[in-house]
Amino acid sequence: MGKYFDIKDSLYDITNNYPETIDLFISIGFENMKDDKQRSLIGKAISLETALKMKKINVNVFTENLVDAIEHSKAINDETDKATSDNANVKIEGILPCPVRIPLMEEFTKWMESTGKSLGIQIDYELKAASMGVDWLKDSLEKAENADVLSDVFISAGFDLFFDKRLIGKFKSQGVFEDITGFENYNKDFDNEEIILKDPDSSYSMIGVVPAVFLVNTEELNGRKVPTSWEDILNKEFENSVSLPIGDFDLFNAILLNIHNRYGEEGVRKLGKSLLKSMHPSEMVKSHRKKIDKPAVTIMPYFFTKMTKRGGPMTAVWPADGAIISPIFLLAKKDKKDLLKPVVDFFASKTVGEILSHNGKFPSIHPEVDNMISSEHKYMWIGWDYIKNNDIGQLIEKCEGIFNEVIKE
Q: What b/e sequence results for 235-248 when a residue is b if at least 16 CB atoms lie within 10 Å of its CB, and e otherwise?
């Protein structure tokens, strides 16, 4: 297969030799790779070939992604994820989506070597992969009693981190952040009659979005029509048929909030009923040996749909009522805006927008980026009024409670 691994190698061997590949396996649904014990137990029992067959994923495309991850990692010192300096006058913290983290870090390193140095900015930054979760950020935010101890710039997808009143949300109401990106309008995909992503209060800015779409296994439909909308997914005929990205908290929370916004608590209950309950990791290991229930629909970030086999049973469907989006937020402190402006300009640049959009299929909000997504494809966004009128942190907890109650039934 190649100089790094063979298709017959176990997931454990590949991830053990190249830990930088773990994110990719998590992203296609092997969430147990995150846990060392599970990775050893389950990873040793599944070969790369079997794993990709189980997920109906294109071997060539996925192995190219694995090789890219390994070679990028060799080319770039992992310490670029984290740099500390005693003299730092700018502190950045955040989470970067896995498929674009390495090219973004390479670009950021280049920027620091040129522009950053010439400006004399000393930057202390910690930018982790999304698969690491946000708990490390939450812990420090919960303890923060005033804005002085906060980082100057935050980058991450998701709602709970930024709107929960126990976390960054408590500082939003104090006017700590300001949108200094300077965009009058976002990309036409996100600034039209149907959707406006730009914060009307000019507190928060964004750099892109993570859209959730459907991957439909036509062999598992059993006479049902291909679902083309979220409403279809909530239909009784898709009960116990859908795989949801529960391990991807940002995207899962975005799905919960959007379903609640459109269909109320009953919609969240129906979403719980649609979840296929039999895909336990221990059963997944045996799935190549025995016939088990497979999801008819997998809800996943748009990026991963490009890995499916052409002509195979897996069909990507962009929901007619809109791909639910989890925004990638960029927050900057208002009281340091002059110092932060060049840093924010880098992360809000067309270059970064194209890495997000073209490398990761995470559409950029930059007005000059061609997201290469048909104008017929809509997006579903909860809207700023909904965010203002609800305590988002509590609402996520409430929706999770309803969802979990249903799946225990």
A: beebeebbbbbbbb
Does 159 map to a domain? yes
In DSSP notation, 104-149 reads HHHHHHHHIIIIIHHHT--EEEEEEEGGG-SHHHHHHHHH--SGGG
3-state secondary structure of 332: strand
Question: Is residue 119 one of the residues assigned to a domain?
Answer: yes
Residues 6+ apart with CB under 8 A from 290: none
Supply the CATH number for residue 304's domain.
3.40.190.10
Per-residue pLDDT, averaged over 97-114, amounts to 88
Q: Cα separation of 261 and 247, whole Å?
A: 22
3-state helix, strand, coil in the chain (%, to 5): 50, 15, 35
Count of residues for the chain? 409
Query: Are 350 and 310 contained in the same domain?
Result: no
- In the numeric block, which tokens belong to residue 222? 């059993």
Per-residue pLDDT tens digits for 317-352? 999 999 999 999 999 999 999 999 999 999 999 999
Shared-domain flag, residues 240 and 218? yes
Q: What is the 3-state secondary structure (H, E, C) of 350-388?
A: HHHHHHHHHHHCCCECCCCCCCCCCCCCCEECCCHHHHH
Angle at 99 (CA atoms; ends 98, 104), nearest 5 degrees = 85
| Residues 191, 93 within the same domain | yes
Whether residues 84 and 194 share a domain: the answer is yes
Cα distance between residue 328 and residue 250, in whole Å: 10
**SS3 call for 309:** coil
Task: Give yes or no for a contact between 342 and 181, defined as CB atoms under 8 angstroms apart.
Answer: no
For residue 394, being part of any structural domain is answered with no
Give per-residue pLDDT as tens, 286-302.
444 445 578 899 898 89
| Residue 89 token pair | 């006058």
Q: What percent of the chain clears pLDDT 70, i.e. is strictly above it?
A: 91
Q: How far apart are CA 282 and CA 38, in angstroms?
A: 10
